[in-house]
Amino acid sequence: MGAAVNGPASHSAASDGSLAIRTENLCRYYRMGEASIRAVDDISLSIRAGEFVALLGQSGSGKSSLLNLIAGLDRPSSGSVIVQGNDLARLSRQDLAKYRLRTVGMVFQSFNLIPSMTLLENVELPLRFAEVDRAKREALCCHALDRVGLTPRLRHRPSELSGGEQQRAALARALINHPRLLLADEPTGNLDSHTGTEIMNFIREFNESLAMTVVMVTHERALAERYAKRMIFLADGKLVESEPALGLDAELTRGGAL
Ligand code: ADP
Ligand code: MG
Q1: Which of 39, 116, 133, 208 is the most buried (most CB within 10 A)?
Q2: pTM flag (> 0.85)
Q3: In whole angstroms, what is the distance from residue 56 CA to residue 213 CA?
Q4: pLDDT band at 241, cuts 50/70/90?
Q5: Which numbered ligand comes closest to the C-alpha of 39?
Q6: Is the CB of 223 under 6 A from ligand 1?
Q7: Of all atoms in ligand 1, which is nearest to the CA of residue 61?
């Protein structure tokens, strides 16, 4: 796989209009006995580098299925996902693993931290997979956890922390390899509104200061309107509408990126 996906060289590609993600006639059907559920049904969309997009829709509309396809956690039934010019279906297993490790950072509603590990160890895990020198790892982790205000909690296990702290740790873990894409599946779904706001402010900061492309699944329209620059609506696995969120700059509105 080319450096375009993995390399830190692409860090300068902020919201310069280049495409981060494109899906073409993307489908994901789940077989349930005789029946087939069209979780993602012929979705073609484009997301530019540096955009902050919210995927909205009712429960069961296909949001997580779509996000998982973009994350390379699942393979399409048909159609394609193209990230920074690379068709994920053409990547070898090894390159797909690399893509998930280095290009994508992911956070989930349920945090998904490993309960037996301290925060430091959780955040360190992607660095171990990426074969970063042991000597460098602790400093990188401490810096990442400091960034989300968790320095006093480094040696704690997830069960000893609040939901907000766990999600902050999950964010630090998602960002540790400097991914270009942050994919968030209902990141505030298990949090109260104050803590949710805190998490969203971090996500916005990463979008703006690190120029990360953010795709966030949510069913809360108010949250999407407040933070995202574009909203994409799904219903029954289909794209029903894409509209700019409030406060979108005119350039993007004209761009018609979808
Ligand atoms: P959302 O995230 O919008 O709630 P999902 O993407 O989780 O929606 O699900 C879309 C549809 O696909 C739903 O009807 C759901 O039941 C179905 N679905 C999701 N995952 C699976 C699976 N692993 N096996 C079978 N059906 C699934
Ligand atoms: Mg979901």
Answers
A1: 39
A2: yes
A3: 17
A4: confident
A5: 1
A6: no
A7: 3
